[in-house]
Amino acid sequence: MLGSLPVKVNGVWREAEVSFASEREVSGLCYWRIPHSLPNDEPVTRKIYDAVEFARLACNRWRYYHRQQLTVTNRFELETAIGESANAELAMILIARPAWRSPISTLGIAYLRRTWCNHLFLEFFATHPQVIVQRGEQIKAVGDALLHQILALAESLAAPCIWGEATEQSHQWYQDHLAIEEVRDHFFIEDEVKLHCLNEMHRAQREMLARRATT
Amino acid sequence: MKMKLASRRIRSMDELAALDNNSPAVCGPNPSTFAARHGIKLSKAYLKFLRGQKSEGNGMHKLARTSPKKLVAA
User: Which CATH number goes with the domain that contains A56?
Assistant: First the structure.
């Protein structure tokens, strides 16, 4: 496991476990399905279809790298691969799972690449359709949990920059959550932005540990 | 490119969760862009969904309903 981070479930803080996806878990992404009854809200339906399609594409893309032995499924493999070749280009999928008893097995995924110059490229992240549809449990802050874990990974790898693409739908989310003045079609988490996000991540972890101590 | 911070205040998780009301749920390029960039085919179900989105009623594709231009004899 890479780490635990808080997510809000029906208004109560709980913990999500984030880890590297194993080969079996990556194969499982192809089985994300559209819920039987979709909400009447068109943007939400679009998000659900996009999430399912992304899970399938991530699986496909990961396998492509896996055939060339350029994927990692745990931190040890990642560090070993970098130790063997400092310029290694490596693909990985981070997967967030509930640490409480839940009918939803996966909360979300993030597909990222460690580039040759030790930057992390966040290709995309997607939350599970059952999390998007919010019928049984209303789960919030899955994106934050994944983003914070990517920051923790960058910190452990001494990666100076995390970068990615933002769309019309996601630029506002990145702008708000990364506290960046303006995000257009790309973002870079480096220098003061990275430091700020790391401080927020450490605060989130402290809050989680404090809650753990009181319950 | 240098990105500027909007605020240096360290926010609590409650504040961050409150920002999640309009979460995009999927962040990154759209699936079509990603698939095209990496040469992966989109699934039939997704293509059908996209066609449905572009259609105006009857679930038929917009392009399929436009009448072809009449050919004028020279």
Answer: 3.40.630.30
**Total count of domains within chain A:** 1
Residue B5, domain member (yes or no): no
Give this prediction's pTM: 0.89
Chain B's closest residue to A30, CA to CA, is: B43
**Structural domain that includes position A194:** 3-214
Residue numbers in A near B31 (CB within 8 A): 50, 53-54, 57
Distance from CA of A196 to the nearest CA of B (A): 7
pLDDT of B71: 60
Closest residue in B to A133 (Cα–Cα)? B25
B64 pLDDT above the threshold of 50: no
B2 contacts A64? CB cut-off 8 A: no
Q: What is the full DSSP assignment across chain B?
A: ----BS--PPPPHHHHHHGGGG--SEESS-HHHHHHHHT-PPPHHHHHHHHHHH--STT--HHHHSPPPPPPP-
Judged by CB atoms closer than 8 Å, whether chains meet at A57 and B49 is answered as no
pLDDT one-digit tens code per residue, A76-94: 999 999 999 999 999 999 9
Across the interface, which of B8, B19, B26 has its CB nearest the CB of A51? B26
| pLDDT of the residue at A180 | 94
Q: Write out residues in chain A with pLDDT < 50, as ranges.
A: none
